[in-house]
Amino acid sequence: MKERIDDFKERSIKLQNMTNEELDEYFWKLVAQVVDPLIELAKTHTSPSIERSVLLRMGFNSLQAKALVDKILEVGLLSKGAGNIVYQIAKLKNIDVMKAGEELLKGNYWDEAQSIFKGGDAHEIKSE
User: Fold this and answer.
1) Phi-psi region of 109 (alpha: psi -120 to 50; beta: other; left: phi over 0)
2) How many structural domains comprise the chain?
3) Same-domain check for residues 37 and 89
């Protein structure tokens, strides 16, 4: 492995005269530079495993989560977010999210789900 050149002294010169407040501001500016691209990526990219994880955190068991995600993937709505789809159906039908998920698993409300998200793209997720 190639040894890294230690340039800490040169790179830290600009930090040495900063106040605690300036250092704090600079730190959060650097954090934003790292995190902002990840947030943008998350807005437009997902996976079945991420969506199953969301449904698990909403209270669905693993079999329900897998079945819902499989159906959502089949109808082409995964980019809208599995939890978001279940939530939007619950809101539309004035039922709780668990009931909405159960109904979707029974094959109900898929036309409504497709209608809610028709024409939108991955980062136009409907929420309250």
Assistant:
1) left
2) 2
3) no
